[in-house]
Amino acid sequence: MLAFDQPKTRPPGVTPEDCVRALREFCASVTWVPLSRQLDGTDRYVLALRGLMSRDPIDMLWLHSREMAEKLRKAIEDSEFDVIHFDTLGLAPYKSVVTTAKTVLNHHNVESSMMSRRASKERNRLTSLYFKLEARKVREAEKRWCPQFGTNLVVSAEEELELKKWAPDANTAVVPNGVDTEYFTPCPDPAGRRLLFCGGLDWYPNRDAMVFFFNAIWPLLASQVPDVEIYVVGRGPPKWLQRLGERDRRVHVTGFVEDVRPYFKKAAAYVCPIREGGGTRLKVLDALAMGVPLIGTSFACSGLGLSDGKHVLLAETPGEFVCKIRQVFDDSELRYRLAAAGREIVERMYSWHAIGQTLFGTYESVAQAKSVTKAREEFRRHMRLG
Question: Which domains occur in the chain, in start order?
Fold first, then answer.
């Protein structure tokens, strides 16, 4: 494993060396490189200004490192690899260092589409223009880099179609996100009037979801269900949300926690009012794995093959959210049916065992595939011999 260290993602008191020791349980070797800049504070604005003068998207500027290139080059010289997995589009330029091993590029989201959606919803005209320019750069990067990899991993068939719009010549494979079904296990129904939302609040789609929930849904819900409570769990809660938690005793803002399972066990329902972003909402899978009834937008639940009324309850407007939440609170049979169906689909389609087999099969296919150059050479040799 060769990775960047991003200090803000480490819990307080956890060092890069602590991370290396933990990862060595799974990896033959672990090497890390410090990131020169972070995507927050002053660094974010410096990168944004650099981005205006570059054809490359922000992620590629952010992840550019001579030290990383040198360590990758040394790793390739020291060992023989069948496949090298690049975990995000921002790392794609390091493909130029790799000359022998086959390669896979992972897409947690189709970044260009996610950026375009954000631009379309941004009210500030200058900010919207900036995101449109960034979306165009990401799209050009997808067109340029995706076809150079043995295959591109996407998390759903919908994301595959989206990526193919911009990179039609790229090889793709669908490997869904998953959940550890041995760690996240079903819990008894706690009943009550307690809601839960989990997710890093330093990520824009999660912040937008909480703005939507507390501005539009919460006042209506609290007026109809006065004893309702909600726990908002995740790092980086904004100041306005922390102040709301101080004013309203029904709103509990925890910040980062080591283990989210105790909060799932206490929740009668999980709310997921996410309206933008990309990829798969991992906490949707966590909630289903633990048998917690989920009320979410169709966008939040997209790409997972979930049926409204069977696995989840879908809601788009504030009124629909309040109606569905009250249904779950008041109907124990409904909670039981949603919990059972959610757990069943997770075990069948999204357990680590299931997706691990799919991922391993994809790696094998890439490793065994002949390169285009080698295939052409063999074809020409065959023609000469014939």
Answer: 2-103+111-146 (no CATH), 194-350 (3.40.50.2000)
Contacts from 322-330 at CB under 8 Å and sequence distance 24+?
322/217, 322/220, 322/221, 322/224, 324/295, 325/195, 325/221, 325/225, 325/228, 325/269, 325/271, 325/295, 326/224, 326/225, 328/268, 328/269, 328/293, 328/295, 329/192, 329/193, 329/225, 329/228, 329/268, 329/269
Asked whether 217 and 180 are in contact (CB, 8 A), the reply is no
DSSP state of 90: G
Comparison of pLDDT for 382 and 29, the residue scoring more: 29
The pLDDT tens digits for 202-226 are 888 899 999 999 999 999 999 999 9
Name the H helices within the chain.
16-23, 41-52, 58-62, 66-78, 111-121, 125-145, 157-166, 204-212, 218-224, 239-247, 261-266, 282-289, 318-330, 332-345, 352-368, 372-385
The per-residue pLDDT of the chain, averaged, comes to 90
196 sits in which H/E element: strand 194-198
**pLDDT tens digits for 9-59?**
888 899 999 999 999 999 999 999 998 776 666 666 676 777 677 888 988
